[in-house]
Design goal:
single chain, alpha+beta, Jann2411-like fold, 7 helices, 8 strands, globular
Length: 194
């Protein structure tokens, strides 16, 4: 679990998934006059190895091949595409097709016993990303995945966990993204009156 997932109170059962989806930061707005700098935490295979090692998803000396790196980026892109859909639309074939194809690179097996759960069948450097696939499965099964969303603000698109009781939040932060969108809509309405 990262500082960000703790700060925004993302449940442990979805923390790796949340952190992985947010390794790509496409926000492009200014806050208090300071432009936000877009970034990608996973610019190279070495960056991915470091990211995984920091979260105890891989050994620090793990070697990630270019093919493994592409599979990981494919998983992230498919995950972000899936999460941008409204939870009711996620069950459609178009929303799940790409994600299911990306997850195929991270197969799991069920294990029983004291620590029953889904375990990776891979035993290479990417085995840790199977934890993301397991969180996807568990979250879809128990419904908590429906609370993981992408901010509706086009200039943000950050993944957030919707803690609201009705699970109808649209923005990662109402005070920033929500306020910007409401202010923009108000200004457009005022221009329309002139």
């Amino acid at each position: 679990m990262s500082k960000q997932s703790r700060r925004f109170q993302v449940p442990d059962s979805l923390a790796s998934l949340y952190d992985f989806a947010n390794t790509l930061d496409v926000r492009h707005f200014s806050h208090r006059g300071v432009p936000h700098r877009q970034d990608d935490e996973l610019k190279s295979a070495d960056d991915l190895a470091l990211w995984m090692a920091q979260r105890k998803l891989a050994r620090p000396d793990a070697k990630i091949t270019p093919m493994m790196f592409e599979a990981a980026l494919g998983l992230r892109a498919s995950l972000r595409y899936y999460l941008q859909h409204d939870p009711a639309e996620r069950r459609s074939k178009s929303a799940t097709r790409a994600l299911n194809a990306a997850i195929a690179f991270f197969p799991l097996r069920a294990e029983l016993g004291d620590e029953a759960g889904l375990r990776p069948t891979r035993n290479d450097a990417l085995a840790g990303l199977s934890a993301v696939a397991a969180e996807l499965y568990d979250g879809a099964r128990d419904g908590s995945l429906d609370r993981l969303k992408i901010c509706a603000a086009e200039e943000c698109r950050r993944v957030f966990f919707d803690r609201s009781k009705p699970a109808t939040r649209r923005w990662c932060m109402s005070s920033l993204c929500g306020n910007r969108n409401k202010t923009r809509a108000y200004r457009e309405r005022q221009r329309g009156r002139k």
